[in-house]
Amino acid sequence: MSKKHCPRATGRNRLKRLVRESFRHYTHELGGIDVVVVGQPGASRADNKAIFESLARHWLKTRSANPAPRHR
Asked: Where in the chain are the domains?
């Protein structure tokens, strides 16, 4: 999240904490991938529930696009 879309550090830190917590819940499904999250202009005004729901949709879409390798 950039200062352009979220001028206060507290807002940017809140979004970072939410992304980390959401990723922690889905990390076992996503496997060993690296993720870059780019915030949208309205993200700083959204409530926590809306952000978690949006991230959950993105994690599931990412999971289906990059299935984890199977071990033999």
From this structure: 9-65
What is the model's pTM? 0.79
Long-range contacts of 34-39 (CB under 8 A, 24+ apart): 35/62, 39/1, 39/2, 39/5, 39/6, 39/15
- Chain centroid to Cα 59, Å, comes to 7
Q: Are 55 and 16 in contact (CB under 8 A)?
A: no
CB of 47 closer than 8 Å to CB of 23: no
pLDDT digit string, tens, across residues 37-66:
888 888 889 999 999 999 999 999 988 776
